[in-house]
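User: Can you model how GPW sits in this protein?
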Amino acid sequence: MFTDWQAFRAAFLNQLQSMHGKSLEEASPEDKYTALAVMVREYISNAWVQTNKHYENKGEKQVYYFSIEFLIGRLLGANLLNIGVRSEWEKWLAELGIDLNQLENEEPDAGLGNGGLGRLAACFLDSMASLQLPCHGCGIRYKYGLFEQKILDGYQVEHPDNWLKNGCMWEIRKFDKAVQVKFGGTVWSEEKNGKLVFHHDNAQTVLAVPYDIPVIGYQNSTVNTLRLWSAETVQEDFDLLAFNQGNYVKAVEYKYSIESISEILYPDDSHYEGRVLRLKQQYFLVSAGLQSIVRRFKKKHGSILDFAEKISIHINDTHPAMAIPELMRILMDEEGLSWNEAWQITKNTIAYTNHTILPEALEKWPVDIMKSLLPRIFMIIEELNKQFCSHLWSHYPGDWQRIASMAIIADNYVHMAHLAVVGSYSINGVAKIHTNILKQDVMKNFYHFYPYKFNNKTNGITHRRWLLKANPDLARLITNSISPSWIYYPQYLSTLLRYSEDAAFLEALDKIKETNKMNFANWVHNKYGITIDGSSIFDVHVKRIHAYKRQLMNALRILELYTRLKENPNLEMVPRTFIFAGKAAPGYFLAKRVIKLITTLAAVINNDSTIQGKMKVLFLENYSVSLAEMIFPAADVSEQISTASKEASGTGNMKFMMNGAVTIGTLDGANIEIHEEVGDDNIVIFGLTAKEVMNYYQNGGYRPWELVQSDTRLRKLLDQLVNGSLPVPREEFRVLYDSLVNSDEFFVLKDYAAYVEAQEKIDMLYRDNSRWNKMCLSNIAHSGKFSSDRTISEYAIGIWKAKPVVIGDILEPY
Ligand code: GPW
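Assistant: Here's the modeled complex, given as structure tokens:
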């Protein structure tokens, strides 16, 4: 710890000089950012080493969280906060004429994820370290993160996200810990001393090099590790090709083909694409991760037979499900265990979280692709499938239909969710309703067979990043009112309820929201030149653009409101600012058209002076973790309007709630549990229930065209999409129109009237300022349940059987 400003100043200036050869006056903001990041790194380096030592010496169970995505965002601010020096250093920097916020903005926003699934993994890491749990992340170091979104002429345009171009300040390359991963080739076996020995010939070998990123716990000296793997050529392979055969160009091509494995993050969210490179990424991650875990385990422990007692491997959805056959392979082919020994260990080591019931997101890989890319892995899956099916046969003799519906390999595909269920000891959904749908519907046959494996773990978010860091004024008000205990025990937020009738407190809450909204409005003005009314309702819909999330329903209601306002300029309404942000997968045509519809509405409405600024529409470019951190604190209304049953949980809903926004939402995902917490008076719920939706899917009976025929208001509204009244070519929105009128798979039209009514209720509630403030307070006070600390404690106790390891007070600068 620096004793005073002088010491801090000397260290900072010294860092600038030694890293960049510059004085304070000469240094650029980026120079200052990197200097500060190095100071943080040095500050925690001892604790990082000590944490690993403790874990090795204590011999407590270790958990590895495997995820194809970690949407960690910027780390400087969060790290300073968790170390516990943020306010002090901020003050000291200010005395040097430096704005810490500005330095934080120099950091590239690590976008190694698409949306909820990847951000959940990042929130989990923060909670694991803050709860002093020996849990680590295992992922891929994509050279290019999720594309950068620009809006050009109202359309989404994708640009590569070269986030590593100036290096990453947090990673440490560990070349000595590299491992080899094999693809292709042929596998053959021979019997030796009564055992089958497998040989893998002519495989392509890829070098997996780990880069470690520290994960710093909240003021507790725990520094865990996020290990990200990068693909490189084995040097000798490259040399052999290039020099021995004199084929330099071929050698370079070869190098690129290998490195392509960790080149880009696939931009699909809740949708899989059966691309070979994606399969390669998945196997690369699990093989590298498992090899390094087994190696480390063997260094410290006696018998590999104890593996499952000492290690849990958690797979974040099915993307890392090949961890199951890969662990089998390592245990049998490399450690010499029998099939049965390996199987006992594997199925007691792996735990699986399912994040969706959307059929288009359930992964399945063509048998022929898997067979040729991963011959040994496919063999193991085939054997697993054989044994599982015969096991099923003995339980359900003659019930072919049931067995076919549960097989791991069926119709020439490997069904990854089936593999994950069979090969793990725990399967969890991410919100109560989602787990119930898994048990009763999507995985009901599996639930019948393995009832003991299924459990629920409702998602959460880290309140440190999403409240303490993102909304410092609100955090201060809370701390001053109820003590800082909520930071360690977020459930204590409920003690805020004693201020429900306290006018001064509610006033303070109101002021903070007002300030956050003004700051946000200023930022919008500077960036887009658009003026928004800080006293209007900030109605926010931010998330991936997806048909089931129904941004289209919101857009339709905006169009209708605007039309009504044009007809009646004196329409009674609280002015509203509709704020959208989110990326569409580059190949998702309908989602991209929805963006164009929103930007078109924005262009028309924002430039129409006749409506006296009562409405504004914004589509903010490039939704990312750092943009999200600005938006949530400024939101009044949280749009959570997915078709019931489709959103497994949602986590944005929790971030809004924690920042005092009121939810307008369907009874879907975690909205249901938010509703349970805050009660009817503090949330606006509307629309079909999951039961009703699923009943329509199973039994039919919803005919959108009939609804449109019988409802003049809907017909008029939909006509506006295609009758030339919007300033776009006439056919521009025909696809949206058709998707609604012909099938309306996501019940936009069916829920529309209820949605409009719910929005009118919001308008009415907002007019009663003191009532609204109480609603905000209730949401904040009940948000403790949705801290990922609660979620991770439940995983640790209920699934991993992992215990905290106390490191002691050793955070030291040098
Ligand atoms: F399809 N989710 C996501 F299940 O963000 F794999 N990306 C994905 O690819 C999938 C799920 C997958 C989301 C869910 O849509 C969301 O409801 C949930 O809150 C989040 O995962 C975290 O559990």
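A couple of observations from the model: The mean pLDDT is 97. The radius of gyration is 27 Å.
User: Helpful, thanks.
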